[in-house]
Amino acid sequence: MIASTLATAVHMQLLGAGPMFAVTSMGFGIPRALPFYLILGVICGLAAVGFSRLLYWTEDQFEKLPIDELWWPAIGALGLGIIGYFVPRILGVGYDTISDILNANLALKLLIIVMIAKAVALVISLGSGTSGGLLAPMFMSSAALGGVFAVGTNYLFPSASLSPGAFALVAMGAVFGAASRATFAFIIFAFEITRDYNSVLPLMLVSVIADGVAMVLMPSASIMTEKLARRGLRIHQDYEADVLHQVAVSETMDKDVPTLPANIRVGELAERIAKHDPVVSRHQGMIILDGDGKLAGVITRGDVMRALDQDPLGAMTVLEAGSRKLVVTYPDESLHEASTKMLRNNIGRLPVVDRNDPYHGRPPAATG
């Protein structure tokens, strides 16, 4: 919030307080045009998914090229240059072209050319590994999509009288919002372009429908996170409750944990494990109790193996072979707190002890 406030203040000082694009008055046609906005929402959702898949498909094709990746940006630049030669409007940031689209200054044929050429130029540029942004290029292509829809609908249904500029504005926010899973942010963003409150209803309707379509067809990632998902990193798309925060240690702890007297020899324990003694063979870790029945330590099978490497006869006691500097958890702690202790101390299990009397008597259980 602080960053947004400061950024807006700087923008107003440098560029003025007006909207980003100077657009003429638009007729959003509410409620008459609602059925057409519903259709546009589905189209924008499909466009968002199609653009995302096209981008990463292009990346995959570059990775299959039998040449060093150093040449990929050069190939991308060549493709961009060829497209730009025939369609100069797609070069640069494109704010002037976006403004023309919003003001309905482009004919249907040119809108189609800009929509396709800009999308292809962008996926070739980014797919080749060239660094670049998505915002303005996708705005141009999706605004042209909205304009094409409105002009085409007016051609098929002259009585519809749809405003190409209004549909371009709505599509501009909906496509990128659905592709990036930032729907509400782009509803506000698109509204701020015109400062026209009449745009809010169609923006919300089309953007939410587009986002729903995109979530159904691409449930696991967005255009921003697909690359991370391909690397095996799961990116949360929604606000999710952390289950580890909700579950207490007492609900999942093992209540039948084997205990060993501190003076038992490692060799004896190893022999019991080898014979599949059910008391000790079902667990990787075991609790060590001293002569008074108090918690003295923990020993794991790894500790047993290391002790036998040092002393093949196994004369060492389990207390000497195990861990005596214990990290413990409590029944009323959450699994998140317990797992944090395990990660910080690089251990695989924790004794669960009574918080009021942690080292007296037998511990109630141990985590696995």
Structure description:
This protein is mainly α and 368 residues long. It folds into 2 domains: 24-230, Clc chloride channel, CATH 1.10.3080.10; 244-366, CBS-domain, CATH 3.10.580.10. 56% of the residues lie in helices and 5% in strands. The protein contains 17 helices and 5 strands. The protein has helices at residues 2-15, 34-63, 72-86, 95-102, 108-127, 135-156, 164-180, 183-194, 200-217, 226-230, 243-246, 249-252, 266-274, 278-281, 301-310, 318-321, 335-345; strands at residues 259-261, 285-289, 295-300, 351-352, 365-366. The strands form 2 sheets. It has a 3-stranded mixed β-sheet with strand order 1-2-3. It has a two-stranded antiparallel sheet with strand order 4-5. Helix 4 packs parallel to helix 6, helix 7 (164-180) runs parallel beside helix 9 (200-217) and helix 13 packs across helix 15 (301-310). Residues 360-368 have low confidence and may be disordered.
Describe the structure concisely:
This protein has 17 helices and 5 strands.
Distance N to C terminus: 44 Å
Please list the strands of the largest sheet in the order they lie side by side: 1-2-3
E-strand count = 5
Q: Main sheet?
A: 3 strands, mixed
How many domain regions?
2
- CATH-assigned fold name of the largest domain: Clc chloride channel
Query: What is the architecture of the largest domain at the second tier of CATH?
Result: Orthogonal Bundle
Mean pLDDT: 83
Count of DSSP-assigned helices: 17
